[in-house]
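Hi support team,

I'm filing this because I wasn't sure whether my run with TXE finished correctly. The job status page said complete, but I'd like someone to confirm that the output block is well-formed before I use it downstream. Pasting the exact inputs I used:
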Amino acid sequence: MEQLLNLIDGELRPAMGGGWLDVHAPATGAVYAQLADSDARDVDMAVEAAHRAFPAWNALGREGRSAALLRLAHLIEADLDGFAQDESRDNGKPLALARRVDIPRAVANFRFFATAILHFPSEAHLMDDIAVNYTDRQPFGVAGCISPWNLPLYLFTWKIAPALAAGNCVVAKPSEVTPLTAYRMSTLCKVAGIPPGVLNIVHGLGPKVGAAITAHPRIPAISFTGGTRTGAEIARVAAPLFKKLSLELGGKNPVLVFADCDFDDMLNTTVRSSFTNQGQICLCGSRILVERSLYARFRDAFVDRVRALRVGDPGAEATDLGAVVSKDHMEKVLAYIELAQGEGGRVLCGGQRVQLDGALANGWYIAPTVIENLGPQCRTNQEEIFGPVVTLQPFDTEEEALSLANATPYGLASVVWTSDVKRTHRVARALQAGIVWVNCWMLRDLRTPFGGVKQSGVGREGGVDALRFFTEAKNVCIKL
Ligand code: TXE
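And here is everything the job wrote out:
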């Protein structure tokens, strides 16, 4: 059984306590590896190593750090297929998706911030002939990065790349549910010339390892992606310690479909925005709001397309949906489908666990599920399900569409389908969301601010927002 180790001070090592956690393959439900069951002692060792490594890493300068990150990007890309196989095995997602999205985006994250840091501007403010001010943006030392299981390497690197590029060292914890690709990447760090202690990966449980990172007095900033409830817990611990926080949390994203949209383009994309990665993306559109005149046509065409989606072996090219990430998560999603029916929802397709045969018989598969006949205030339309489940709601006016769209405690992403340019601007402005896609979904420019409002998080990642998060701004004012 493979043992997935911590990376601390440049060395791959087990947890100091010697414990191990089971790692499952969602496709089969079987345990395939053992994970270092770390605790606060491992975090302390990582933080000390990071602080020791910080001066030299920072002194390496932007060019030197950029070169090291570009080498790491190249090494991951050179083994793209291996990383994609690992990601699919660990998360249950289709191999084709890991190969097309997850791993190329992890490479892009490193390349983007390795070059962005070379062009990261600072400002100057001249006070006529009195004084000149300049803004000095410096790394703060050691950053804590905690990431989730849905896009494991993609979201792990989305945090550590800007942190490292900015000159900080990192103590990072990937999800214990999907640690494999972070472990694989840690075996490449020495070859990439990332000095010992610059990147430390401490594996294990959130309440033990994640909590120790959050509370550590020598980690002044935490970047977190995960559930809203966990984000609130991290904020509760970090607030009295005055730590900088970046919180990317849950979503309950609306898709607004107006009757004047490009129907085929909308339909094709809405199937993707509903069920990509088994619906386990915080950006998926889980509430589909359709103008009433188009509702019946959309519902029938959408259900036909969803019924044709193939749930199966993540390794098979033809598979559209693989397994959901864990048994607990499968049971959570199935419980929400039960709840929806109890709230009066009508299941138009899906609604049950998919039982495969052979080696996959014990895997965690759920049929893509479409539910109608639920109002905006029921739990099904208020709470994040984070699985292959969407609801349909009709609307009569633009005002009603916006009222429905904004009717949840979340505000992460939203999608608008219309051909009316004026409506596009009106609706985009009125939506309570950090991201509005119009006639598209998941088009990503890494320079753009990424994040949500309300219970979807605090702060923004991406581009200069990320580099500003991972530096402290100092104003220097010099009398002329
Ligand atoms: O997230 P958690 P999980 C949502 C989704 C999902 C729910 C829970 O609804 O069902 O969150 O998913 C670490 N202190 N999203 O369990 O628990 C944990 O070990 C510090 C949306 O994955 O938030 C993991 O590394 N860290 C999200 C990370 O936090 C703690 C993507 C995320 O775990 C901790 C994933 C603690 N007390 C889930 N407890 C998105 N926005 O994309 C746990 N962790």
